[in-house]
Amino acid sequence: MMQECQVAVVGGGPAGLSAAAEAAEAGAEVVVLDRETRPGGQLIKQTHRFFGSKAQRAGTRGIDIASRLHEEVEGYAGATILSDADVIARYYDGVLGVMHEGEWLKLHPRRLILATGASEKTLALPGSDIPGVYGAGAVQTLMNVHGVRPGRRVLMVGAGNIGLIVAYQLLQADVDVAEIIEALPHIGGYWVHASKIRRMGVPVRTCHTILEISGRDRVTAARVAGIDRGWNPVPGSERWIECDAVCLSVGLSPLADLMWQTGCEMAWVSELGGYIPRRDQCMETTVPGVFVAGDASGIEEASAAMMEGRIAGLSAAHSLGYVSRDAFWRRHGHLASELKTLRAGPTGDIIMRGLARLADAPTRTQQLVEGGGGEC
Fold first, then answer.
1. How would you classify the pairing of strands 219-226 and 239-242?
2. Rounded to whole angstroms, how far apart are CA atoms 314 and 157?
3. Distance of alpha carbon 96 from alpha carbon 90, whole angstroms
4. Do residues 255 and 263 touch, judged by C-beta distance below 8 A?
């Protein structure tokens, strides 16, 4: 059985819920498809308070933002959230194949917003398959959603915002954080997070990497070393750290499967996490009527994802005739200004550099043609 809708949003995280709320407020009929049983995405495990302005939810914890966005979307008569809804494919005619609560559903939206988020990167090294090796997001899920500690003594690999925040949350859960190591020569996360960690006695060592993890049925230790400017281990710097868990916070990759299926032009931009779709200032991709937002369009903070989601939802509603041209550009200007503010500072400079490169980066199709063939 085929169902029609005006706007389908794939992903019920901060970007997806924000997009749905914006489109529904304009009067569009919206269906949110989220594969989890509880909407909110990464927000449901973020217990820290957000930075930014009041409009950017400053001072509010991620878990509370998730609840408020959920309530906002459900407050619109034309909005529906389908949980346990896994979008398997988008077909050539624009139909979405969805597995919803064990039943096959075909949904044909007039506009599509892809807010599929990201997946965690990992490291391939000896012992990385031993029980007790986690991604930082998995640790957050264990602790903040299910109330389970991943171990008693944890080595954190990565000093970006996620690594620092999760390390602090581990300490709050009475888990000993042996230390934090970072391959780069500087701490990548906000200094406010790093300062809290250091005040609690946890060393943060830059220019360090993990070489090996030992253990049989469980992690027992990890071998680390300092590295030089060529990323080579410094002789004599190797040492073993006793721990029963290793947390890898080494970055995220945009979940782009549906974008490839949809036929969006994709470009590799390392500053934004990998392959992402080209899009315009309205967050519309090179496929008309298909929009993107959040980590699926480039790895950033959740605050930026919400602003991008708002722009995508507004644009989708405008394209359907629900928002006048003047009202659209007024609202778009406000949202774009908030997004620009969020991208200020050193971390934002990296994002802006990546966005500048996106316009000039060769697409996957171009690379294949210039390389003499191959398959996407």
1. antiparallel
2. 39
3. 5
4. no
- Selecting from 3.30.565.10, 3.40.50.300, 3.50.50.60, 3.60.10.10, what CATH number does the domain 2-119+252-368 have? 3.50.50.60
From 33, 45, 55, 36, select the one nearest 115 (Cα to Cα).
33
User: For 138-184, what is each residue's pLDDT tens digit?
Assistant: 999 999 999 999 999 999 999 999 999 999 999 999 999 999 999 99
Task: Return the number of other C-beta atoms located less than 10 Å from residue 13's C-beta.
Answer: 29
CB 312, CB 292: distance < 8 Å: yes
The amino acid at residue 98 is: V
Start and end residues for every CATH 3.50.50.60 domain found in the chain: 2-119+252-368, 122-248
Whole-angstrom CA distances from 18 to 10, 52, 111, 149 are 12, 17, 16, 31
Q: Which fold has domain 122-248?
A: FAD/NAD(P)-binding domain (3.50.50)
Going by pLDDT thresholds of 50, 70 and 90, the confidence category of residue 365 is very low
For the whole model, what pTM was predicted?
Answer: 0.90
Residue type (1 letter), 155: L
3-class secondary-structure state, position 94: coil
Contacts of 236 by beta carbon, 8 Å cutoff, 6+ apart? none
Calculate mean pLDDT across residues 353-376: 60
What DSSP assignment string belongs to 71-104? Answer: HHHHTSTTEEEESSEEEEEE-TTSPEEEEETTEE
> Rounded distance, CA 369 to CA 178, Å?
49
CA–CA separation, 240 vs 222, rounded Å? Answer: 6
192: tokens are 């406010």
**Short-list 299, 326, 294, CA closest to 310:** 294
Beta bridge partners of 8: 31, 112
pLDDT more than 70, % of the chain: 93
CA distances 315 to 13, 99, 245, 278, Å, are: 19, 27, 45, 16
Q: Does residue 6 contact residue 107 with C-beta atoms inside 8 Å?
A: no
Instruction: Locate 198 and state its tokens.
Output: 């250091």
Copy the structure tokens of residue 182: 């970072």
Q: What is the mean pLDDT of the chain?
A: 91
Lowest mean pLDDT among 142-156, 203-217, 291-305, 347-361: 347-361
